[in-house]
Amino acid sequence: MKTLRYALFVSLCSLVSFATEPLKIGHRLEPFVDHHLIDRLEGTSLRLHAPHYAGVALPFNDAWDRDASGYATILEDNGLYRLYYRGGPRDMSAGKSEGSTSYFCYAESRDGITWVKPKLGLVEFEGSKENNILLAPAPKEDPWTQSISPFLDSRPGVPADERYKAIGGQWPQGLYVLVSPDGIKWRKWRDKPVFKDGAFDSQNVAFWSEAEQCYVLYFRVFTNWTDYSAKNFRVDGFRSISRTTSSDLINWSAPQRMTFGNTPLEQLYTNHTRPYFRAPHIYLTMPMRLVPGRRFLTDAEMDTQKLGKGFRGISGHNHNIPNEVSDTVLMTSRGGTRYDRTFMEAFVRPGLDKGNWVSRNGVPATGLIRTGPNEMSLYVGQNYVQPTAHLGRYTMRLDGFASVHADYAGGEMVTKPFVVEGEQLALNFSTSAAGGLRVEVQTGAGEPIPGYTLEECPVVVGDSVERTVAWSTRTDLIPLRGQAVRLRFVMRDADLFALRIQPSR
């Protein structure tokens, strides 16, 4: 029956001309985090892969930290990992806001595993500059040091003393741009905010997009609130995300609210949107998802275990908030105003630690980094508003967010037509000892190409982040360059994480 269905599929494809032009994927890595490259799944599915907890990466345990520290960003620069976060003293007496007690802090690492808080000698705290503080809180009338998220500006022609940039600020004043020559000594780039049309009561992020050739800014909005010039701040509707673009970080396009496809609205508290470092044409975003009104811990459990106590002392928040649960989800974008919510389930669950079932847990650091030959790490805020507050490290294989998955019974995946511009097909995949996969190259209409048929492809078995595919008489795709082809994967007990058509080496 499966063979008959496939024959009918090929016959139909041969009768129908392409409704759209074949995809141009060039030599780019294409992770299977969405359906962009997939035309048909039969007996296979896209599966989300949860990262693995690797322990505490950075405790928030200094006097100038607070148990509500967070809004971290991680950058890599010439082998040095830089971690920026919002800190502040634990003693937040009544009437003090987060803004008036938030410090911009710094840590660094050579491997992404062991982090050091260097003594920078820049800002005095309780009579000493022996700390890792970069900036003290600015006055609330000019809140340019609030919720800062740095990025390395890769736009060609950027002055050396402005290579590091950051977005900071809050409503109603707006967002400011900060610059630095070295990632340590920061200054305000312009006296006035560069963008005002948003709520901003979260971490707002920006970067230079090589794919779109512009600066892109993603920021907090509310679905039922459009007049951000109003004097009174209010939560109205769902917390959501908008974006705007600019060629110069000064003049911005009219903001547009991001869409999520045919999925229900959820309270997306943060966004953390960044290009994936192995495939920068794909933006990854891992929002903290808040679920208002849902609770796991009783008030008695919270009181007994002293969970969430610090949060109740922060001005502007009520006592019920700590009992609202939250987690981390995964979304992707290929530019423009659409996020793909391919997976609605959680990417990082709160887990067995009850301290992570207090509201506002699950806020990840903006940015992923490579921490091993086949490994990358992400960092997630945990034990929020507790004495044990920290960033936890999670690991996954390179490109290992999701995969085309086949169980033991087996199945197939056929790609959309794309133009061959390289020489070899390289796969990131994993199989069991009994499983495997084979690849057939077809014409754009779905006809097997001699020399690249399924029967001529030995079964590929093993586990590799980059392995080239060979057929019995062909080891490359050189004869097919410039042609539109499809790839048919026949799989059993296997996962396909990514593919790339490699150029000549």
Overview features:
505 residues, 6% helix
Layout of helices and strands:
Blueprint lengths: L1 H14 L14 E2 L6 E5 L1 E5 L3 E8 L10 E8 L2 E8 L10 H4 L1 E7 L23 E3 L13 E4 L11 E7 L3 E7 L6 E2 L16 E5 L4 E9 L16 E8 L9 E2 L9 E2 L5 E3 L2 E7 L2 E4 L7 H7 L3 H4 L12 E4 L2 E3 L35 E4 L2 E8 L7 E8 L4 E5 L4 E5 L2 E2 L4 E20 L19 E6 L15 E19 L3
Antiparallel strand pairs: 1-31, 2-27, 3-26, 4-25, 5-6, 6-7, 7-8, 9-10, 10-11, 11-12, 13-14, 14-15, 15-16, 17-20, 18-19, 19-22, 20-21, 23-24, 24-25, 26-31, 27-31, 28-31, 29-30, 29-31
Please summarize what this structure is:
This protein has 505 residues and is mostly beta strands. Helix content is 6%, strand content 38%.
Walk me through the structure.
The structure is a single chain. The protein is mostly beta strands and 505 residues long. The chain has four helices and 31 strands. Strands 1, 2, 3, 26, 27, 28, 29, 30 and 31 form a nine-stranded antiparallel β-sheet that branches. The model is unreliable at 9-18 and 310-321 (pLDDT under 50).
List the total number of helices: 4
Distance between the termini: 42 Å
Main sheet overview:
9 strands, antiparallel
Instruction: Bin the helical content.
Output: under 10%
Query: Structural class of the secondary elements?
Result: mainly beta
Mean pLDDT: 91
**Unreliable segments (pLDDT under 50, ≥5 consecutive)?**
9-18, 310-321
Based on Cα principal axes, name the global outline.
globular
Provide the gyration radius in Å: 25 Å
Strand fraction band?
35-45%
* Strand elements, count: 31
